[in-house]
UniProtKB/TrEMBL annotation:
The keyword NADP does not apply. One of its GO terms (biological process) is nucleotide-sugar metabolic process. It comes from Candidatus Roizmanbacteria bacterium GW2011_GWC2_35_12. Its EC number is 4.2.1.46. Keywords: Lyase, NAD. The keyword Lyase applies. It catalyses: dTDP-alpha-D-glucose = dTDP-4-dehydro-6-deoxy-alpha-D-glucose + H2O. This is dTDP-glucose 4,6-dehydratase. InterPro entries: dTDP_Gluc_deHydtase, NAD(P)-bd_dom, NAD(P)-bd_dom_sf.
Amino acid sequence: MKLLVTGGAGFIGSNFILYWLSKYPQDKIVNFDKLTYAGNLENLKSVEKNPNYEFVQGDICNHELTNQLTNSVDIIIHFAAESHVDRSIMDPAPFIKTNIEGTYVLLEAALKNKVRFHHVSTDEVFGALELNSKEKFNDTTPYNPHSPYSASKASSDHLVRSYFDTYDLPITISNCSNNFGSYQFPEKLIPLAITNIVEGKKIPVYGDGLYVRDWLYVDDHCRAIDLIIQKGQIGKTYLVGGLTEDISNIEIIKKILKIMDKNENLIEYVKDRPGHDRRYAIDWSTINKELGWKPEHNFDDYLKMTIDWYVKNQDWWKRIKTGEYQKYYEKQYK
Ligand code: NAD
Ligand code: TYD
């Protein structure tokens, strides 16, 4: 099989490429990525000389290039997006452009070249759940996004589904919860907290810190996408989540501080994010029943593995914090 992976230099996309090439070494992967601030080819150093891996720098909004790359592949796995809620609040424009228009351009290319399309989306399209309720997002939860990020992802999901309903394009969608693990850009909560602790900096906690996310380890997410690609029903959307029982941001930060043997005086409460969704929780029973997927380990084990990775790979994230990582493409590829 030959896969076109969009956004493969980002956090989940690069984990997915490493996962796929180690599990299916005979398959070919084209990584199509614009290399925005979030794209980091250093994540893929271990495969850059693999003859079955190719990197193409480009924008998914570019019709011609997208069409050309789609021409020779069997499937598109679409990760490319602007992904950070806080940035979408500061400037929604790139979110509208990449997440909506870029998805449309890819869908057109998939249709023209008769290529299967898997769209990676988020649980944030469903809006927010009440704190302390037992409610979870499920297969019938209506869309109710609150941030420019989640609204742009919701639009992209609707577009993908419309290409199935209207043109019979073979699509699948996964809506997953907050991922964490290796190679996550240190602007997101867990890597930000760990790297700040190592540097002796404060950890900013938005509002009262009692916001709840449903944490999914990135390798479990990659396995879920693998199963959907291999055995998922065409036209269907799968919800993917973790094993945490309503753990708040402040509890996670306290766990990290405890594991790293540091004092809670590093916690700093700061102004809340506008439109901040209170709670996310996912009912992933459909993918469990249909495809046999479930997370492999519990949250605490994954959190320890993640802390360990960031402590051992300080070079990786320090090169991000200094901006050095953005020179890697020029040095290695040009
Ligand atoms: P990321 O921000 O780490 O990486 C995004 C990648 O897309 C980067 O490599 C970037 O260079 C690339 N990109 C951005 N605009 C592009 C464009 N116009 N053309 C080509 N490439 C472009 O994101 P991530 O955390 O790896 O998320 C991947 C996908 O998963 C996104 O679609 C996101 O919405 C979804 N998702 C992420 C999470 C999470 O917790 N990280 C949770 C649910 C869903
Ligand atoms: P984030 O990692 O940005 O993911 P998302 O907004 O997509 O859920 O944030 C996770 C949670 O952590 C969210 O409730 C916002 C909160 N948060 C903080 O309290 N402090 C921070 O510095 C960041 C980045 C996030």
